Amino acid sequence: MSDRGDGAIMSDPGDGAIMSDPGDGAIVSDPVSGAVVSDRGDMAVEAAIVAPVLFFLMFAGLLVAGRSIQAKNQAESAAQEAARAASLEQTPAAATEAGNRALEANVSDTTGMDCAASINAASLEPGSIVEVRVDCRADLVAGRQATFTATAFEVVDQYRQGEES
Which are the contacts of 37, defined by CB distance < 8 A and separation ≥ 6? Predict the structure, then answer.
């Protein structure tokens, strides 16, 4: 037995293995080559390898979540705007055209989003309901795409007047 000077007692059982106390980590010398092998610092090396990978995955997840939320909100806003524009028109054809124009205006400044609307404006009598369903396909991250659907309803104004002659 020997004292290293730091309070740890080293022992040599005679077979070439040198052991220290458990608080210092295992230190073993190879009986063939005589090289001292230690597990000190292994955790730091593992952390240095794993931490950047975990950081990248977390960052990519945040990007996907943020883009998904933004695309869903954009689809909902486009549906609401299209329903409002369609409800202001006098004929079903004009309502469909106005709804599609409002949809295009709402998503035209958003890159990576392709939207289509289904507008139900069969009756534009005062008090009736216009329904707009918007399906948007959005680019997320690294070529991944997702489809977002939003539906909006708008009541045709009861006090509006018909076309002026």
Answer: 27, 28, 29, 30
Between CA 125 and CA 108 the distance in angstroms is 31
Which regions in the chain score pLDDT beneath 50? Answer: 1, 9, 18-22, 164-165
Place of tokens 């299209």: 82
Count Cβ atoms within 10 A of the Cβ of residue 78 and give its class: 0-12 exposed, 13-18 middle, 19 or more buried: buried
Token readout for 95 is: 């309502």
Q: What 3-state class would DSSP assign to 84?
A: helix
User: Residue 14, by phi and psi: left (phi above 0), alpha (psi -120 to 50) or beta?
Assistant: left
- Joined together, the tokens standing for residue 66 give 């943020």
pTM confidence score:
0.67
Rounding to the nearest 10 degrees, give the CA dihedral for residues 67, 68, 70, 72: 160
Q: What is the 3-state secondary structure (H, E, C) of 6-70?
A: CCCEEECCCCCCCECCHHHCCEEECCCCCCEEECCCHHHHHHHHHHHHHHHHHHHHHHHHHHHHH
